[in-house]
Structure formats: C-alpha cells, structure tokens
Amino acid sequence: MKYRMCVFSNYLDPLREENLIALTDDPKPSEVYDALRIAYNQGAPGIVNNTRMIAPITEEEDNYDIIEEVWRNRHLQFIVRWINRKITLCIGIETYRTLGVRVRIATSMINKLVNEGYLSKRMSMRIHYYLCENVRNESSLVTNEELPF
C-alpha cells in the first residue's frame, strides 16, 4: 500500500541512505515520525530548526518568504524550535487534543510577536495557516494509516 507522503518523508532520506536510521523506501507516516524522534534524540539539530511544519509542503513563494523571515528573526526562531520540539516530535504519540492545545500556545506566541512589532500580521497569518494545516494533515495521516480504505 502506498502512503501519502508526509511533510518529513524525504527529509530523512540522507540519514536512511547512510544507514543511520532504519526506514523503508515507502514508510508509513508513523514510521517517519518515529525515525524523526530517533534522529532528534541522537543529536540531529536540523530537526528543531527546520521550517517544514510552518510552511507549505510544495515549493511556493510562501515557503521562501517564511524561511527568510525565520532566518532574520531570532524571536521567530525560538518559536519554530518550540513548535518542532513540542508539536512536530509529538505527532503520533500525543492526542489530537494535546496537539491542539499546543497549536493554540504556538499561536499565542506568534501573536505576541505581532503585538510587540517583531512580526508582521500578514506573515503571522501565513505561518499560523500552514502550522494548523500541516499539524492537522500530519496527525490525520498517522491516525488513518491503518485504515483499509
């Protein structure tokens, strides 16, 4: 059965090719998140510093704008690391309610940046949209991967 590709499916390819993590060529979404946690626990810093959960999966202009904003904004970098530690790495092990609460906390953190003048409202809305979409989609992929249809 071919699974829908999750946000991190191809992110782990270099680690798989070097046999640093065990992952099949067509992994289930839960296996991808298990491997992501293993890589993080082994000290892969790129996992908490990446923007995959707050940007579109496709190569859109939004993706580059968000990446540029994260690179230049240290306050947003802190939030991205928090999102990846508290939400991304918890997909597949936390309940949808817990993840939902954490998305709300992340949203409050992003809104605080807007209120303090560190982030534009337009950029915060884009980040919030992609965060909510990606978390919902990724959680659904993991939850529904064993369904027969």
Condensed summary:
This protein has 7 helices and no strands. By secondary structure, it is mainly α.
Describe this structure in words.
- The chain has seven helices and no strands.
- With 149 residues, it is mainly alpha-helical.
- Helix 4 (61-72) packs across helix 5, helix 5 (74-86) packs antiparallel against helix 6 (96-115) and helix 6 (96-115) runs antiparallel to helix 7.
- The model has no long low-confidence stretch (mean pLDDT 86).
Count of individual helical segments: 7
Multimerization state: single chain
The rounded distance between the terminal residues' Cα atoms is 10 Å
Helix percent band: 55-70%
- Low-pLDDT runs: none
Number of strands: 0
Structural class: mainly alpha
Query: Major beta sheet, specifics?
Result: none
What best-fitting shape do the alpha-carbon axes yield?
A: globular
Mean pLDDT across every amino acid position: 86
Q: What is the CA-atom radius of gyration, in angstroms?
A: 15 Å
Total domains: 1
Salient structural properties:
mainly alpha, 7 helices, 61% helix, globular, 149 residues, 0% strand
Give a topology summary.
Layout: H1 13-17, H2 29-41, H3 46-49, H4 61-72, H5 74-86, H6 96-115, H7 121-144
